[in-house]
Specification:
Layout: E1 2-9, E2 25-27, H1 34-48, H2 66-69, H3 74-78, E3 84-85, E4 89-90, E5 94-95, E6 100-103, E7 112-113, E8 130-132, E9 136-137, E10 143-144, E11 148-153, E12 169-174, E13 179-185, E14 197-201, E15 212-219, H4 224-248, E16 267-273, H5 293-304, H6 307-313, E17 316-321, E18 324-327, E19 330-331, E20 338-339, E21 343-346, E22 351-356, H7 362-374, E23 387-389, E24 399-401, E25 404-406
Parallel strand pairs: 2-12
Antiparallel strand pairs: 1-13, 1-15, 3-13, 4-13, 5-9, 6-7, 6-8, 9-10, 11-12, 14-15, 16-22, 16-23, 17-22, 18-21, 19-20, 24-25
């Protein structure tokens, strides 16, 4: 069962990110990761549990004794390791795909998509030049950003009563009053007998008053299968029209984006990452010598999708627009605590476009439904690898296929 998670900030929030090179400036992330949300709920469970360890740790362990039967958190506690937490982004916003472009002259103009464009993208409002865009977009495809506040912190020398040397630093934190939305998914047999609204503490420096928030969970009922069918058909209609236009203009067999010009009448689908994804295999693609773009596209797609999907669907990778992030950090729990080995993640907003020679079969739709539900890559239980099949951002044009006309729609809030 999937729940819509709504987090309203009652105080400023600091969700840790990389430190600035100077080490004295810490910027909060612009979203709440699934791991942070999981840790916040785990803290509330252990604080209410009379059987919690006395060392103050917040590891959730279900004991199954009589006291557990009367606990409000019993169902959540019992299946806590099976529950999946998604990233929470500013309400009414999502990560813009890397195929997004915005007007150079007026950034307030609507942000456009270039995934299926064969010509240079121009602003639809002023016909001016455009540039790549990254960040968040709202339901009307315009830029939106969370509100931040700059806070100075220092430690006072107890003898001189002045700032201690090297202890003055700044925090750029998220303003209170903002709302972030995400999702929480539980096993089908798990019922959450918990309050509709609960107070949680999220992020860092909660002992200093930061991170107080109200979490609301609301069950979501959505016909996912029909939604994916409609979006795939819409994208296929746009792709067919784009291919027809390219042939009519006597372009080469393959355009600059790598799309096959003669692939009209076949099925298309895209996968857009809504959060960073950790591939199943490491990506030492650099330093291996020269490789064809088509080879790199295929290797990257196979690194992020399960082998079962390739064996069942066997799609053709038409285009990949991706970026990468390297995350390391420290492992602070367990016996082997210490520095964590860094891994290369595929960045949120990356887009994969595929062509299916056999068309949009029921088998393909079922596999796409499973991908969108479970995510792709590793660590999906903490929100990584969240994916949208045929994201509405790529469906900003009208299309017609098999006598059915499709109109652009915004993404569901």
């Amino acid at each position: 069962m999937r729940y819509r998670a709504s987090v309203e900030l009652n105080s400023a929030l600091l969700v840790g990110d990389r430190r600035e090179p100077t080490g004295f400036f810490l910027v909060s992330r612009s979203f709440i990761s699934g791991a942070v949300l999981r840790a916040g709920i785990a803290r509330e469970i252990t604080l209410a549990c009379p059987l919690a360890p006395a060392d103050g740790s917040h590891w959730v362990r279900y004991m199954g004794v009589n006291a557990c039967m009367e606990c409000t958190w019993r169902n959540l506690c019992r299946d806590f390791d099976r529950i999946r937490f998604g990233h929470c982004y500013p309400e009414g916003a999502r990560v813009a795909p890397m195929t997004a472009y915005r007007c150079k002259a007026n950034p307030s103009h609507r942000i456009c998509d270039s995934l299926l464009e064969s010509e240079r993208t121009v602003c639809p409002e002023c016909k001016g030049g455009m540039e790549r865009f990254s960040g968040f977009v709202d339901t009307e495809w315009r830029e939106v950003n969370p509100t931040r506040r700059l806070v100075m912190r220092l430690a006072v020398d107890p003898y001189r009563h002045v700032a201690s040397e090297g202890r003055l630093y700044a925090l750029r934190i998220l303003e209170p009053g903002q709302r972030f939305t995400g999702w929480v998914e539980t096993p089908d047999e798990t019922e959450l007998d918990i309050p509709v609204r609960m107070c949680v503490h999220l992020g860092a420096k909660i002992s200093s008053g930061l991170g107080r928030a109200t979490l609301c969970l609301e069950m979501v009922t959505e016909d996912v299968v029909q939604g994916i069918k409609k979006r795939c058909a819409h994208l296929t209609a746009i792709a067919d029209q784009a291919a027809t236009n390219r042939v009519a203009m006597n372009l080469a067999a393959t355009n600059q984006s790598g799309m096959n010009q003669t692939a009209t009448g076949q099925g298309y689908f895209s996968l857009t990452l809504l959060s960073d994804a950790l591939p199943y295999v490491s990506l030492p693609l650099l330093g291996e010598g020269y490789q064809e773009t088509s080879v790199l596209r295929e290797r990257l797609a196979r690194a992020i999708l399960p082998e079962k999907f390739w064996n069942t669907v066997n799609p053709v990778t038409e285009r990949v627009v991706a970026d990468f992030r390297f995350y390391g950090g420290y492992q602070t729990t367990g016996v082997n605590a210490g520095r964590r080995h860094g891994r290369t993640y595929i960045a949120a907003g990356s887009v994969f476009l595929f062509r299916v020679p056999g068309g949009l079969s029921d088998t393909l739709i079922n596999e796409l439904v499973e991908l969108e539900r479970t995510g792709i890559g590793l660590c999906t239980e903490d929100g990584y690898g969240s994916v949208r099949v045929c994201d509405e951002f790529h469906l900003q044009k009208e299309g017609e296929i098999n006598g059915v006309h499709y109109k652009p729609t915004g993404f569901p809030s």
